## 1
Amino acid sequence: MNICVVGLQWGDEGKGKVVDILAEGSDVVVRYGGGSNAGHTVVIGDSRFALHLLPSGSIREGTVCVIANAVVVDPAVLIGEIDGLADRGIRLDGRLFISENAHVVLDYHKREDQLREESLGKQKIGTTIRGIGPCFADKVGRSYAVRMSDFRDLPELEKKLGRIVEYKNKLFAALYGAEPMTVDTVVENCRQYAERLAPFVTDTTEMLHTTIEDGKSILFEGAQGSLLDLDHGTFPYVTSSNSSSLGLPSGCGVPAQMVDKYIGVAKAYTTRVGAGPFPTEQDNETGQYIREKGHEFGTTTGRPRRCGWFDAVAVAYSVRIGAVDSVAMMHLDTLTGLKELNVCRAYEIDGQEKTFFPANIDRLAKARPVYETLPGWEEDISEATTFGELPPAAQDYIRRIEQIVGTPIEMIGVGPKRSQTIVRP
Ligand code: GDP
Ligand code: IMO
Ligand code: MG
């Protein structure tokens, strides 16, 4: 069985935890999109792992890990992660494979990301400053792109980097009055990256097809969330790639038909980091309660996450565009103690009720959430292991969301640990 795990909101839904759990039954785990803007957390007992580029299956020693073609790879971050896991006794030699076609994020991308965001002031997107947008822009622009396969021919790469740095220096000086970068540092860094990462670089598309032909199972790990999708999310407050499950086929060369099940991950409420519309945001005591109780601070940047009520309109949209068969709902425990819970079942736009999410932000900006209010619960649910052990109000909350979204909720998170997950038969 090949399964895709994808975020249904604006990222940080708990994908890392769900992937870690499902990885037990998979031979291969594949990251097919995004870059080090992602931060996926896995908590096993007292150990916490925050992964940015490595698939969340990396923690399991027997799992093969693939970083596919559409991931933009920051070699410094990746090497840091490989070394960090090795320090904790987890080795990736012989089981990590990186696509030769994956594009490389270099220092000038991060610099460009930062310079642009600073220059935009209030208009900024609120990116993670991980160089994601500039690297994808170079990919689409083609002439100044560096891919993992370029590390195989260092003399040729040195010439290319000379051209790129000259171009970027002119651009940064003209637009931002920035000091020039020296090509020597970039070249020297690339020499070190090439040496360290060369053993992992291969044709991952061929590898994945061979894996499927051999009858093995693959778990596809989405990054970001469907509402951050470049084409289908809340543009321009999105990331620079197709982060919904629609990005899977192009992201790794495996057609959508070869995926047997799509599992969408959502929190029992909604969060968002960075700027952009957020109809159910609670910039008040409720939002504060959720942020503190759920430890809602970014895994990658440490920024406080904006918090709000569960938005069933947004999640139903992600489910529809993503062919999602089943929902994994994390952080149900975080809602414990709130007297009443609001669920957004529709939007009111220009006096009309709408249940299809308007991704275009001009219309989304006008959307007023239409809430349904459900009773909360006081009982501690963090030790619950079955659906039946949840308080009736928590069960009703899950059932009502299933009805509105139209998809079964088959996994429920009651705490950050691997073990704190209810799987419904
Ligand atoms: P991802 O980007 O989707 O992998 O999610 P992140 O790792 O960025 O953020 C999710 C956060 O919620 C992490 O700190 C997880 O450890 C934590 N988490 C995941 N599931 C649960 C849950 O069911 N309850 C609680 N309290 N925390 C959870
Ligand atoms: P995971 O995989 C939450 C957001 C940024 C910003 C916008 C663009 O952990 O769920 P970028 O750096 O991609 O150009 O930033 O997208 N963003 C995320 N938000 N979780 C993520 O990843 C994110 N990756 C990007 O905050 O609003
Ligand atoms: Mg995250």
## 2
Amino acid sequence: MVHGNGTICVQGGYAPGNGEPRQIPIIQSTTFRYATSEDMGKLFDLEAEGYFYTRLQNPTNDYVAAKICELEGGSAAMLTSSGQAANFYAIFNIATCGDHVVASSSIYGGTFNLFAVTMRKMGVEFTFVSPDCSDSELEAAFRPNTKAVFGETIANPSLTVLDIQRFADAAHAHGVPLVVDNTFPTPVNCRPFEWGADIVTHSTTKYMDGHGAGVGGCIVDSGKFDWTAQADRFPGLTTPDESYHGITYVDRFGLEGAYITKATAQLMRDFGSIQSPQNAFILNLGLESLHVRMARHCANGQAVAEHVAAHPNVAWVRYPGLETDPYHALARKYLPQGGCGVVSFGIAGGRAAAEDFMKCLSIAQIATHVADARTCCLHPASSTHRQLTDDELLAAGITPDMVRYSCGLEDAADLIADIDQALA
Ligand code: PLP
């Protein structure tokens, strides 16, 4: 039976049997016991399903990953230790030294740094395109060795909305998947697979956890991308893996399972960026109320955006839910129930005024965080994005006067009163 988001948020991913715990159990164990070496050997050959070492897989994590997978409408999913690890694995699973990726320039600063600096050092080249680029500019970004296209549904912090369908069509025309970081809307507000995306990533640290309690990430595969249609482009999935006893992932696990199994078997084995079972348990507590919280985050975001848009001390506002926002039409298409609670705005008077404004807020606290129950704010140009050059800042949609204001779950009237006294 197909369930709605609310039912999946509360009960998805875990179905206890008779006498088993109603809540997801925390399997706080590094290792798992087997009667014979033969039994264990079958796991190492990926011939039998089971757990042997928590660096690769843990049952608690898999229950929670299954819930997120169901929310996104995917075929397989895995938890990672952070959103950074999720985006790294999502790309590195299909693009290695000598390969190339097309990415939106309007993405989280940490992801931009991961791609433009760290993965470039590993030999993966990125071409960044504006999410608003013309079709011909997008077309020109592809190379014969392109392996993926990447973007954020709602970009952090510029709040541009990705035209998922257009980017998916372009990716597919070049035989590569579209990877979408769906952190800000969460699957409650947008399911990128329904618009043609192939792989979805999350920083679960944000709304999914929702309480600022646990850093984590997730990768979900739609199971629909046909790696075999361009088998030469994706040898890691379509030819034998000598580091795993010669198995070929698509042959053994099908299109539904190949991508996540490879990421688990190779990348988790070698890099070990797995989420702790404790954090997965905490994440699940957050997921149980995600559908209820997202509505409140969005209502608060809309109220704050409308209020500051009319304030004389605010130079500009970006919130896709505003009718005047340049991304409103895309938001109506992809985010009809609302996007997220994050509002970006510029304080009249520039950088110094923005920093003064933030000091005067009392409910919203300055924090390197976004998308949790407590309202927080940040000055991206001097914090999360300070490693970017001025040109890169502009390409990422960031100006010196920008405040990123993340509406929590408090009363909108109190948030607005706090903003008003700080603007005054
Ligand atoms: N993706 C997006 C859209 C983010 O906003 C962030 C962090 O802010 C990340 C990925 C990285 O996630 P994490 O901080 O969990 O590593």
## 3
Amino acid sequence: MKLPQRVTVCEVGTRDGFQIEPDFIPTDVKIEVVNLLTATGMPRIEVTSFVSPKAVPQLKDAEAVMAGIARRPGTRYSALVPNDKGAVRAVDAGVDDIHTVVSASESHNLANVNMPIADSLAKLEATAQVALRAGKPVYSGISCSFGCPFEGDVPVPRLVSIVERLVGMGARGIGLADTTGMANPAQVSRVLEHLVARFAGVEWTLHTHDTRAMAIPNILAAMAMGVTHFDASIGGLGGCPFAPGASGNVCTEDLVHCLWAMGVETGIDLDALIAVSKRVQEIVGRVLPGQIAKAGKWTRRYPLPDGVQARLGERPA
Ligand code: COA
Ligand code: ZN
């Protein structure tokens, strides 16, 4: 299997995850989680979003969270914005990178940001201007890149034309988001084959949700196509409030464990990450979908049952 030597993980749990939590998570607890994630050596954290507080009340404290976190050199702190107003807020709050969002599906875009794709793209022009004038790199995510829970198939030519517009605005990276876990690995390969050859120099990120247990297989397919940036959320938190059936992102510690087991570097301390997942489960008050926090790493060993130990001892060496 041909694997990259190194992969960059972006933790999105405090944004994509917390945004769907029904009970307000106090600002100091959000700050604590970002600081714990920072301490694992996480290279990128999407801390929060600067969206309408009416649309996502959970993240209404975005400024206070950004102001409260302790930054580590070597970690880049970003936030999601839907429009130029969000970009102004994010720049003022001191984010390192701006993440924008538009959907490849008309119906999901209307549900998510209350405007047609064309209006979103026009707003994102202004958004990118704000970010680039402030010297902040822009990474543009495309929701429902591989399928829409309302419309089904998303034609690749539509995806291509949206990428073209976003790259034209100066996006350094494009995030292909499988918002409701509809993609399969063969499809991920096929779509990337179209895009990677066509847009040289773009940094591709795969943003997965594990709704149908295909997130890690899809990541492996993307890695085989040369993609080395992946979003993930601690414990497997998450889901889009504006996409029915959406569930959590690929779980960060499960992904980092898989990469570690295969010898792919991430720069992340896996044991520390598992401890953060346990803390987040305490905070949200439920068991999260991640498997490694339950099973332990593959190197975990158990004592032999009594009878077996005795019988092994009888066997000639
Ligand atoms: N931050 C804070 N407030 C914002 C904002 C932003 N980025 N953008 C708009 N608003 C405010 C406006 O100032 C206005 O406030 P007012 O009612 O007090 O005058 C109000 O929101 C409505 O503004 P409008 O431009 O008409 O937006 P809208 O109601 O059509 O909503 C979005 C559009 C994009 C702002 C909203 O749908 C949104 O924030 N969506 C985010 C969805 C999301 O986070 N999804 C999950 C991640 S993919
Ligand atoms: Zn998502």
## 4
Amino acid sequence: MIYDIEFETLPREALEAIQLRRLRATLDRVYATVPFYRRKFEEAGVVPADIKTLKDLRRLPFTYKQDLRDNYPFGMFAVPMESVVRIHASSGTTGKATVVGYTARDIVTWSTLMARALASGGATCCDIIHNSYGYGLFTGGLGVHYGAERLGASVIPISGGNTKRQIMIMKDFGPTVLTSTPSYALHLAEVAREMGVGFGDLRFKVGIFGAEPWSEGMREEIERKLHLQALDIYGLSEVLGPGVSMECIEAKKGLHVAEDHFIAEVIDPDSGEVLPYGERGELVFTSITKEAFPVIRYRTRDISSLNPEPCICGRTSVRMNRVSGRTDDMLIIRGVNVFPSQIESVLMDMGETEPHYQLVVDRQDNLDQLTVMVEVGESVLASGEVRRFQDMEKRIAKNIKEFLGVSAKVKLVEPKTIARSEGKAQRVIDNRKF
Ligand code: DLL
């Protein structure tokens, strides 16, 4: 079903006319209200009035995650706080998280886009949605929740974790749509099997999975183990949250971008040049309807390509191909975004270990496991007390959990055990298969 039949099936010309009108209004607004954008535009020698066509967007400077951090927490909001009704943030050490805000109208926009997304996965008001995305500062839980309510479906706000209870609720309440990260979906299947519950006996027909990279191979595995159709949903807090793009159940081939709200570009990450349709590069988004937190040419670091071909579902928007990786070293561990540099800060702030560390990521029972290997100095080693090492491992793990919100196993190792490199240090060994 197409939720927003008028806007989701606009002829290209009409869509572009809307995009240009909304883009220009957004540019006028950020120039007037966000000192960061005014300064950046001035440095680039452009004023909003210079943007006369959609192609002129290329004249505007990019916005980076670092810009958000530099303006922490609310420096890039385009409305006064009294108009902000919701705040979300991505994980990060204190002072480094990226914080985003929404006006009441932004929440309506977001809910509508999420209702569209759920509907493009075949959900209707008759469905019961089991929402295992985390509720909290992360946009997944509340994003899906508001969309489900807007669609008129019944939503179970189960959030993540407490897996056995989730399986019990699935048996008792009979949900028909599952929303979670793809890795948690596989974990649910595993736990259900251990409990003697077959997904084939549950009522699920579709699962809407995202927030982390996954592959076609993983789609097949999920569909086989969970007896449902697995669809991909994409988004990021800086641009909106979930609902920036979503696959349709008819084609299951590429994610329809909500182009009446976001302009998508794919660029060469090194030169910054805009690439033609079909070529792979870094996704860049400009929001054209958001009030509290508009973003202009935001560099997502996600790698994908755009496909303008018409889709059998009838939607006319451009589709982005599955995100195949990132241009930076950000890891997504159980849905939490983690930069190796954040772990490094925790280690360095504690000052008890050497600056040689490595992060090993594995997937056990379909759950991500992060192990932080870090060298201790000769003097610590000389003390030779096992209890002291164990105590230190526990304290480091506790600090990582506290500052980054991610559970890690910490393993202290002897001096010079971690391979030294001549070029870039290999900080991460990611054994997960996407
Ligand atoms: O992960 C929003 C979201 C919630 C999307 C629920 C889908 C479902 P952030 O925590 O800000 O927001 O993380 C955004 O996650 O830049 C990508 O690197 C990655 N990501 C999100 N969706 C996908 C996906 C949410 N479908 C970052 N495939 C993004 C691959 C994804 N990576």
